[in-house]
Structures are given as C-alpha cells and as structure tokens.
Amino acid sequence: MADLSQIVKAYDVRGVVPDQWDEELARLFGAAFVRVTRAGSAVVGHDMRPSSPGLARAFAEGAAGQGADVTEIGLCSTDQLYFASGELDRPGAMFTASHNPAQYNGIKMCRAGAAPVGQDSGLAEIRALVEEWTEAGGPPAAEGPQGALTQRDMLADYARYLRSLVDLTAIRPLKVVVDAGNGMGGHTVPTVFEGLPLELDPMYFELDGTFPHHEANPLDPANIVDLQRRVRETGADIGLAFDGDADRCFVVDENGDPVSPSAITALVASRELAKEPGSTVIHNLITSWSVPEVVEESGGTPVRTRVGHSFIKEEMARTGAIFGGEHSAHYYFRDFWNADTGMLAALHVLAALGGQQGTLSQLVARYDRYAASGEINSTVDDQQGRAAAVKDAFASREGVELDELDGLTVTARDWWFNLRPSNTEPLLRLNVEARDAATVEQVRDEVLGIVRS
C-alpha cells in the first residue's frame, strides 16, 4: 500500500512514478477530489512528462466515476490550468512535478476560480479518503450517472486573456531569448507572443519531460548559464527562463545578469498601482526592502506575509490586493483569480522595457537598491535548536528587532536576515539583505557560524 505521508505535501501531491504512486492511485485521487469539493464538473490538464497523460486520464476517470463532467485540456502550463479553472468556474487539477527530475510527478489541485487546495483547505480530507478507499479496494459507487469526459484546447483563450491584461501594441521592437528548459513554456510562449513586436529566439522549446539540456529550475544559477550566454552572444534586449510547468519566470538583462525576483515584483507592482492607485500589494518576508518602499512610493499599501502560495493567496483574497510577489519568482494577480502566472509578469516586464528607450539594466536599477546573499541552505541535525541559538545571539542587541512570523527575522537599521526551517528536509534556509555587500557578508558569516557550529 502506498505511503501517502511521503507524497501528499503541504500544497500538492508529489512523488516518484511508479515507485510511490501510479495511475491506480491517481484514479482514487480523482474520485476523492470530487467528493471533497462536491464538484459537478472539473477541468484537468498535464505537462510534458512521460507519465503525465496516463495519470491525468486516470484522475479524470476517477472524477467522472463520481458523477463529475470533466473537461480535459491536455498539454498546458500550470497557470493555463488556473486560467481554465477561473474562466470555466470549476475545480481543476494539474499534473506536473514542476522543476523536479523526470521520474517525479504530482497534482496541483484548486477549487473553482483557481482557489488553492492545501492541507487546511481540502487536501487532508482528500488524502484520508484515498487511504480509506485503498484499504477498501476502491471508492463506493456514485449515486447518480457517470460524468462525461470531453476534450477542449484552451491555449488560444489563455493567450488572448493574458494579452487583454497588458497592452504591448505600442512597444518598440525587442529581441527576446526564451529558455523553456524543455518544459511547458515551449508550448505556451509561441502562442502568447504571436503577433507582438518581438524577435523571439527560442531555446529548448522541444517538449521533453526527461530534461535533456538542464533541470527546468531557473532559480538554480547553473540552469540559466545557457540563457545568459545566448543573450550576450546575440545582443538580445532580455532573456526569460521558465520552469518545467511554466508558472515561474526568471529574467536576465541585456548583459546576461540575473534580475532579482524582488526587482521584478517592485516593477510590476508600480505598473499595477499606476492603473489603480491606493491598492494593496502583497510581498513575502524574504523579498527585498525595495518592494514595500516602491509600493509606498507608488501610492500603494504593502502587506507582508509568510512564504508560500497559500498564504499569499489568502492575503490577496482577504485584502483585495491587486498583486503579490515572492522571492521565488512566483507572481500573483487579482485579475488572474489571485493565482500565480509567470507569463503575465513577463508580459509586464516586456511592456515596461519596450515602452521606453533604456536598457533593462537601467530600467530595473531603480528597483534593485540593496545587496543580498540569496538563499543559503545549511543541513542541520536540530533545526529548532540551531534556530534558538541564533535567536539567543541577537535577542539582546541594541537596535535590533526580532519577529517570528515565518521562522526568525532579525532586523537592524542597515540589514536584516531571515532564518527558516525547511518543511521537508533537515535544512535551515538563510537570506540576508543589507545596504552594502560588505555588511551582507559580515551578517551572513556570523549567522552561519552559529548555525553550523
């Protein structure tokens, strides 16, 4: 019997296929999904991994077996699935393991309108039903008739909707290199960019869930080396890299230098606030100081939250925020059902760049104001004990504030750091930001000295 504790995570299902889960289990998840959401209809999509079509079809059959009519949209990005859930106003399931290696697969589930399904919003109940039915040999028969399976291509609708949210018609011509990492960006980018004044230079657009060129995780510097080289060699204006399911977008400038997701968050926030002054913008506690500064300068209200898409989406719904951004290159939009879409963020960056004559590095300089360490992971035997030691070391210092909204955040006049435990691994994650690089190094080394002692 499958050990669901190993594959049901905080926000999704994810594990090795077929070792940890398979189509039989996917069918049970489909049935349980319908029972928990009480869905009369659902939409199901999948990425390009070899196991994805079979898993997605099994899930759809399980859902239909419980009476739900299922629309199968086939190959899609995760944000395209969110679009379908919002546009059709029905729960959805996306089969992907995002940036994980080829042998992994998973399910990202949402309620109608792309509302998240996590441990506290239905995922625990879904897991309990799957465990119960695994022991019983399957779910009980549905009371009503079997649901229907229909197929629908929604890529053009998705592209049209995104283009309706950002006006790119008047931008100057731009040369854009896009590294899709053999993931779903290779499927969505050509349609979204079609007809725009962009000279597209595609890299690794062939859909291949074995990821032959590099991992589809652009936050790892090793995976954007090819993109950086191509931008420099071709004199491109900008480079974009998408992860495997193309819901995250990472940006490099005309020099091939990475643009921090915090700078992108600040840039997009300023554009959204120009449309609706006075609106709220959400940012997690690891984004740069520059984000709330720019939000306030743009006439908006910044709201700080924990790391993780469920917290961001909850705060967006609670506050009516127009936009939200994370350090991990997830970008959330009120006009996209509060869901994250890297593609829409990319269109905003292209519109901002193409709407003026300067380079991207010049454009983002106003949003990139501080030095930062990036995320540094330390393997520790005792997460709680090491974090407590760091807290003790800084608690009595003059001019220092501590908070524990998410892990430990220590803030001084010229610097701050956050130390968070991983939920899935024996790691502590450190992020440091300061007014200059020397201070970043000093604070980083002091904290790591305690963590790793």
Automatic annotation (TrEMBL):
InterPro entries to which the protein is assigned, alphabetical: A-D-PHexomutase_a/b/a-I, A-D-PHexomutase_a/b/a-I/II/III, A-D-PHexomutase_a/b/a-II, A-D-PHexomutase_a/b/a-III, A-D-PHexomutase_C, A-D-PHexomutase_C_sf, Alpha-D-phosphohexomutase_SF
Pfam families: PGM_PMM_I, PGM_PMM_II, PGM_PMM_III, PGM_PMM_IV
Keywords, comma-separated and alphabetical: Isomerase, Magnesium, Metal-binding, Phosphoprotein
Gene3D superfamilies: Alpha-D-Glucose-1,6-Bisphosphate, subunit A, domain 3 (3.40.120.10), Alpha-D-phosphohexomutase, C-terminal domain (3.30.310.50)
Domain Alpha-D-phosphohexomutase alpha/beta/alpha residue range list: 6-135, 157-256, 263-370
Domain (Alpha-D-phosphohexomutase C-terminal) ranges: 375-448
Name of the protein in its database record: Phosphomannomutase/phosphoglucomutase
Alphabetized NCBIfam families for the sequence: PRK09542.1
Species the sequence originates in: Streptomyces cacaoi
One example of a Gene Ontology biological process annotation: carbohydrate metabolic process
Presence of the UniProt keyword Transcription in the record: no
Top-level taxon of the source organism: Bacteria
Family stated for the protein in its record: Belongs to the phosphohexose mutase family.
GO MF, one example: intramolecular phosphotransferase activity
Keyword Isomerase: yes
Cofactor(s) listed in the protein's UniProt record: Mg(2+)
SUPFAM superfamilies named in the record: Phosphoglucomutase, C-terminal domain (SSF55957), Phosphoglucomutase, first 3 domains (SSF53738)
